[in-house]
Structure formats: structure tokens, C-alpha cells
Amino acid sequence: MLPSLTTALSAAALSAAAQVPADTVAYGSWHGAFSPWFLLFPLFWILVIALFIFVARRTWRRNQHWAAGQGAEGVLRERYARGEVDETEFRQRLEVLRSGDRRQK
């Protein structure tokens, strides 16, 4: 039974292969024509990398901007926490920092 089944399957495979057109066998599924589908994979990865770079740079810039603005207030908070300045002096200096008015000498 097994040899007859193997013979029948191989005969079916040979007949199916014989029905494939010759140009498909020679050129594959493209039939010799140029197809731009192969460009999609590199384009996809280029877009993924560009998106990653864009998000990373934007996050870094926002973080730098935030850190620059928090510098003086952070130092003032640390000094208040250590007890170097009292509450009234802390509030006065914080008000000056947040107002943005800088006295010209």
C-alpha cells in the first residue's frame, strides 16, 4: 500500500510540475518584468530608523530645555531643604526667579 501511495503522489507532483508554464519556471513569479516590491523592505526600515531618531532628538531637546529652566529653582529648593535659607527668603527668591525680571546694573 505504501509504495503505491508514494508512486501516486510522485506522479501527481510530476503532472502538476508539467502544467507550470515555461516562463514561470525560467523567470519565477515575476515573469521577467521589473517589480518595485523589493524596495518596500529597505524603505520600511529607513522609516523606522528615521522615526526613532526623530523621537529621540525631540525627547532630548525637551529634556534639555526643561533642565535649563529648572536649574536655579532646583538649587534654591536644595538650599531650603538643607536649611540654608528660611521660608520667607525662599519664597522671595523663588518669586524673583519665576518673574523673569532681572535688574540691570
Structural class: mainly alpha
So what's the overall shape?
A: rod-shaped
Q: SSE order, as H and E?
A: HHHH
DSSP summary: helix tally: 4
Low-pLDDT runs: none
Q: How many beta-strand segments? A: 0
In this structure, how is the largest beta sheet organized? Answer: none
Distance between the termini: 107 Å
- Helical residue percent band: over 70%
Beta-strand share of residues = under 5%
Total number of distinct structural domains? 2
- Return Rg in Å: 37 Å
Residue-averaged pLDDT, rounded? 76
Concise account of the structure shown:
This protein has four helices and no strands. The protein has 105 residues and is mainly alpha-helical.
Care to describe what's here?
The chain is mainly α. It has 2 domains: 34 residues; 63 residues. Helices cover 75% and strands 0% of the residues. It has 4 helices and no strands. Helix 3 runs antiparallel to helix 4. The longest helix is centred in the middle third of the chain and has 43 residues. The chain starts with a helix and ends in a 6-residue tail after the last helix. The mean pLDDT is 76. This is Membrane protein. Keywords: Membrane, Signal, Transmembrane, Transmembrane helix.
